[in-house]
Amino acid sequence: MALSPLHHILIALGLGLLVGVVREHARSRTAGIRTFPLITVLGAAAAHLGDRFGGWIVVAGLLAVGAMVVMGNVARIKEGDPSPGITSEIATLVMYTAGSLVGSGLVVEAIVLSGAVSVLLHFKARLHGLVAAIGEADLRAMMQFVLLALVILPLLPDESFGPYRVLNPFRIWLIVVLIVGISLSAYVAYKLLGARVGAVLAGALGGLISSTATTVSVARRTREVVAESAAGAVVVILASTVVFGRVLLEVAVVAPGVFPDVAPPLAAMGLVMVGASAASYWRARGELVTPPEGSAPTSLLGAILFGALYAAILLAVAFAKDRLGVGGLYVVAALSGLTDMDAITLSTAELVRVGQLPAREGWRLILVGGLANLLFKGGAVATLGHPRLLRRIAVPWAVALVLGAAIIAVWPG
Description:
Elements lengths: L4 H21 L9 H19 L2 H23 L8 H17 L3 H16 L1 H10 L2 H17 L16 H25 L5 H26 L4 H26 L4 H26 L15 H38 L3 H13 L5 H26 L2 H24 L3
Helix pairs in contact: 1-2, 1-4, 1-5, 2-3, 2-4, 3-4, 4-5, 7-8, 8-9, 8-12, 9-10, 9-14, 10-11, 10-13, 10-15, 11-14, 11-15, 12-13, 12-14, 13-14, 14-15
């Protein structure tokens, strides 16, 4: 249903009130609860007038708002009370633009813009705190992610090359960006929460960053601090549980069309791991652990190596399917899953998506990789950790492996 000019005016008024409340609460001297609604209404009215008399009216309105902002600042400077910063001043110009968007019929865009402005204005202290918590290495990692996602990715061809036509540079690098983005997001949360996180959150973030690295770190830590074995078991098991949630997310992003066929057995394995985590947490009675300090997960070299690994597994799976039969596929999946679940998950999902692998084989390959990964981490705990940590995870680990094998064997399809 098309909105009338009156509806546009009311929406603009509401958006102005939203931002005005935030600035009034912050005691802004530039604009507040009354000024911002007037600005957005002016923008909406100017857009409607512009439709009838020409777009110059919208530009004239923007210049008028800018002139009033400048005059207000000049007056305060003459009074000897200059206002530091220009946040409110910029916000007035943006909200005039939001009002103009409403008047032009771009209501959803205006609402999103106004919401973003409100959030940025309200969370000033937290945003400054976030920047203060970011070190030089963290900033470098973020810039490297920008390089990966916004510079390299758009330049790559979206075509399939090579043997078996499974190497698509754009999609391979898109997978790299996806994995690095997940890990970097988890790392940022890790940095913000730091040592205040408990065993549950430490395990969840560890699973997003790297469940294998988390397992190794916790195992080594229990050698030094035996008392942390109970909470360490919670971290290790929960990190491996999160891996299956991460696997489901990756399949949903890479191959949404086959997700309904692949997801149920993987989700069932995830529920098995949830049960193992709950049992471990109940046994530990909520003990806390200080997460070991990690490093930023983004690096150009690491991204290139992962992309190469992903491409190699794509070729290996396609080769095994063509030359070695089903048995060869499972060998590749098990070897790949020992230390990294992302590559086998994404390569298998891609092959299922393009029709080179049936869904019933695809999810089994992913699950075989997952079980191999559990075995590898169990070996890491036995080798690097305190025996008490191994005793804590042995039973839930064994149950998960047995039930996982049962899912592969008896799940229909």
